[in-house]
């Protein structure tokens, strides 16, 4: 183990210890801030895995957030099941939906694939807007009473797990194949990569984690509406976080997420839409100046400066 | 048997969907298989611009369209020439992210300027209350106007693509961009024209839909998906197919609104799109993907 790795592991142990103990000494506002960060960190890490490394542009990210949230509400509130089975099952429902649509959407590539995931997300949105069982467009109350600190810790575990999963997948054999698919799918197929299975594994991991994140997120407001659960805001925020942090940068995602949540909280009091407007501008500007992301560009700039001395 | 007026209204609104779908299809085939994710947002933006212009000048929304459509054309051309042209050579999915950003900008500017409550262009058009009798059924005149304007726009586009130099260059660049460049076509400029025209078609359709239905800033997303559905159903690159695809979507929406309730019309439309993607991805009439 070299010095750099030891440094990273040491600092992340300290960070995790601090974050675990945080609910006992920081105010509620900052706990909510960190909670939002954890949820978006899961989404952004999954985006990095699915879109950044594998090249599958998953525009329907809000669809999985929503399906996770609604499955959780159905299991925990409508059917009155205990917390943990409901949580795990909501992730599994996301996987089942992903499995069901995979044979259709994996036949397509590029923009068609991306658009079909968006159609699926919107079909789910349209369905839950009308389904009276879950309250239709008016939404439904999540009847789970949990201390905020517990919700915070669940989100922390999920965020940490998502970083670990993405790191290990990317370093594994599967990750190598996914990267090959990301740079040229036909070439990967030619050299014997089973592109369908690899993409499927990657897609299923992402759908599980994103659905789980959706289920956990709605424990905090305690109320699910189709507009909030399937909102395009999930997509735009994740895209902004990923473009700030770098498309294939696992650590950069943390910086991107902190950035978007700060922006969101800063404008939330006055005008929530303004942060989305700024997010849009940031996506466009970053794409024009540095398509691989802002943080990698800044880092290489700093490294170049340091070398000069 | 459904009442014939439901079918007729579906056909007429479907023609408008066909128009917005042709815009998306033109951009897709014309500019390296790129999907304009902000397509519906351009349509909604046009409806809002027509609303502001019409309520300030007391002119008819359709007359304001004569000013709004060139504005959206210019906006589209600027987006393509200034931003997207730099990215399209890498992969067709990269512009999607850029367009997601542009969609978010348009949606939230509309939220800031025009507020989230539903608006309509109908109160500004006195003829929107009139009805006409057609094939033995009475239906609002505005549907017929929308249908005729959509058909007219398609005919103009067809003539333009067939018989003008820019139209020929657009077709050449969509067939084979490298070869077109060899023959002296400035593809970057042609892409800007293509995107502008596609956006202008979306703008016309947006104003038509705004005359018939209510609209809110977030309507851009369903419009984009419906126009994608039009090219899924009709097949890419075929104007006749897009028209038929639009009509199928329009009729299916009106029928589901009639039988199941208005709330289900989007759901049925999306399921139809997904079913076609699953069973026949080249489209009902399409030859190639």
Helical run tally of chain A: 14
Please work out how many helical segments of chain B DSSP would assign.
Answer: 11
Which two chains have the most extensive interface, and how many residues on each? A-B, 46 and 46 residues
Taken as a percent bin, the fraction of beta residues of chain A is: under 5%
- The helix/strand class of chain A is mainly alpha
Low-confidence stretches of chain A: none
Radius of gyration of chain A: 19 Å
Summarize model confidence as the mean pLDDT of chain B: 91
Strand arrangement, largest sheet of chain A? 1-2
Please give the number of β-strands of chain A: 2
Strand proportion of chain B:
under 5%
Oligomer: heterodimer
- Which structural category fits the helices and strands of chain B? mainly alpha
What spatial form of chain B do the alpha-carbon principal axes imply?
globular
The biggest sheet of chain A amounts to: 2 strands, antiparallel
The outline of chain A comes out as globular
Query: In the CATH hierarchy, what is the architecture of chain B at level 2?
Result: Orthogonal Bundle
Largest sheet, strands/sense/barrel of chain B: 2 strands, antiparallel
Radius of gyration of chain B (Å)? 18 Å
List keywords for this structure.
heterodimer, A: 309 residues, mainly alpha, 2 domains, two-stranded antiparallel sheet, 14 helices, 2 strands, 1% strand, B: 289 residues, ABC transporter involved in vitamin B12 uptake, BtuC, two-stranded antiparallel ribbon, 3% strand, globular
